[in-house]
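$ fold --in a.seq
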Amino acid sequence: MADPIKIIDSLIKDVKNVDIPNPGARTVNTRGTDLDICWFPKCPPGHTDYTWWGEEEDYEIVNVVEPKSSTAKANSNAEGKAKAKGKAKGKGKDGEAKERQNSKKQKQNQGKRPKGKNNAASDTPLFARVDLRVGHVEKVFEHPNPDVKKLWCEQINVGEDKPRLIASGLRNFYSKEEFQGKNIIVVCNLKPSKLVGFVSNGMVLCASNSDHTKVELVEPPPNAKPGTRISLQNLDVNEFEPDEKINPRKKNSVWLQFAPKMATNGEKLATFDGVKLVTPEGDCTVPTLANCIVK
C-alpha cells in the first residue's frame, strides 16, 4: 500500500505546476472567451453587474410613494383643516379687512387697460389701431407767438368732454373763416407734441399734391357726428380698441406702417390701401385732389 503522505505531496506538486489564473485580477477583459466560462461566469441569479463585477448599473432609481391608507388620508385631511382654522384665527379683523380691499381692487381693475403701453391686441387690423374721428372745428386762432405765420391753432370737438387744442400748418391754404365751422377728420391717438411752444393734441388729416403747393382737408359728410370713429368700407373699427398712444417718431411706430397706405383715389375719396374711408353717414372726400397722398 502506497504511503498516504507521499500521495498528498505528489498532488501538491502537481497542483503547483498548473498555471491557474487569479480570479481577482481582471487585468484583461476575458468575458466572452473560454476563460469566461471557467473563471468569470456570467452574472449569476441574485446578482447585478454592479454586485458581481463592481460595475455601475444603467438602471434609473425612481422614488416610489406608497399609497396612503384610508386612516392616513383621514388624518392628513384633519391636519389640513386644523391648519386652515389656525390661519384664519391668526388673521383677525385686520387680515379680513385687507382681503376685502384686495378683492375690491381686483374687481375695479378688471377690464382696465394698463397705462403707458400699446394695448391693441396682436390681431387688431392696422387701420383700427389708429384712432381717426370726426371733428368739428369750433374756433380758429393765431399762434400765441406772433412770429409764427404758418400755423393755425384750433379748438376741435371730437366727442370728448371739452374741445381739443390742435395746431395745423394750414395758414397758407385756408383762411380763418374757411377753416372754422368745418367737419374734418382728426388723428386722436398721436402722442401730443409742441409746435413752437403750443401743445398740439392730435393732427388734422389732409390731402396734398406731390410738391405740397396745394393742401385740402379730408372732410366727412356734413351731418357726421363729432367723435364718430372712421371705418373702412370693409372694416367696422368699433369692434376693436385703438392703440392708447402712437409716437410717429419711433422707428417701429404703427404710424410709419399706416401713413404710406393713405391716399385719395380717382374719385377724390379718401382711402386706406385702396379701400374707402367711411362713416355711417357716407364717404370721406376732398374737394379736388384726386390720386394724391393723405397725411
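$ fold --in b.seq
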Amino acid sequence: MWPSLLPIYGLTALALSVTADYYVDNANDTVVYAAAGTIWRTFSFAIQNLTLVLSNGNFTVDSSECYDQNYALAACTVDNHCQITFPFTGSGVSVYVMHAGFQGITASLTIDGGQSVTATLPAPAPPSYQTPNVSLFDLQSLPSADHTATINLLDWENGTTSLYFDYARINESYVELPASPSTSSLPSSSSLSTSLPVNSTTAEIKQPTTTSSTYTLGATSALSKTESNVNLRAVVGGACGGLAVLIAIITATIFLKKAKSRQVKLEEKRRPDLFPPIPPLANDQIVSLPVYSPTDEKRRMRLVAHNAAVYQAPRQPDGESSAFYILPAAGNVGKAPDGEASGQY
C-alpha cells in the first residue's frame, strides 16, 4: 500500500512551495573564519565598538545597527587568503555586510566548490562612512539541498578589502530540479542586488569582467538515486514484513497443534482403563469351571419355587419390607421329611 502512495506524495511535495527564511549570524558556531597573517575580530555593541580615526576627528562604527548587534571584521589582500565558510540548507543565500571604513570590498562567493561569483562595492561615502545592512551577494534558484558557502576576500583596487560581515539570510523555498540535469546558470554578477540607502551619495557598484558563471547540478543524479532507493527500500521492507508475519502464523499454528497433541496423550495416560487386560495364562495353567449335575439343578429350581411361597423379607424400621434377599445355593438344599425340598438360610 505505502509504496504505491510514494509517487503521489512525491508529486504533492513538488507542487508545494513554502517560503521561509532563516539567518546565519556572524557569531554562529557553524561559521568558520580563516586567514593567513591577519586576525578576524568580532565587535559588539554591548562589549566593544570600533573607532576609526580621521584627520578632522574620529567616528565609531555603530554595531547596534547590525543584525544581533555585532559583526566580524578583517582587512585583507588576496595574499592573506581571508575566508568565511558556513553551511546552509535551502535554495538561496544572501550575504549582508556593514559597509563601513575607508576601503571598498571585492569578494567572491562559491557554492559547494563550484565556480565563483565576484562582487565589488565602492568605499563608503562620507560623512558617516558607514551603511548597515548592505547586500553583498544574493544568489537564488539553487536546488533545495544542503550546501556550503565560501566567501574569499580579494584585492579592492589593488589594495586592501575591509569586510564587516554581518549575517547571511537563507531562503528555504523549495526549488524543483530540472528534468534533464546538465548545467544551470547562476544569476550573473550584473543581477546581484546591492542595496544602499537613498540618502547615500554614492551607489555605484563596479562589476567584474565576468558576466555569468556556471553552476553544475551535481546533486541531481544523487537525488534521483535517493528517490529510487526510497522506493526500493519501501518495497523490500513491505515484502520482508509480510514474509515475517506469514512465518509467525505458520510457527504459531504448528506449535498449537503439537501442544494439543501432547495434551491429548497426557489425558489418555491419566484415564483409567475400563477393561484391564487379562494376564496371559501359563502353558501349564488350567482353568476349571464348576460343573453342576442335573440333580443339583432340579433341587435349586424347587428351592426357588418354595422360597417364593413361604419366605417373607424382614421388616425395615419404617414398616416396609426389603425386596432383596439371598437365595440359598443349590448345594444347601436337602430333603424335608415330607419329601419337599428345604433350604437352609
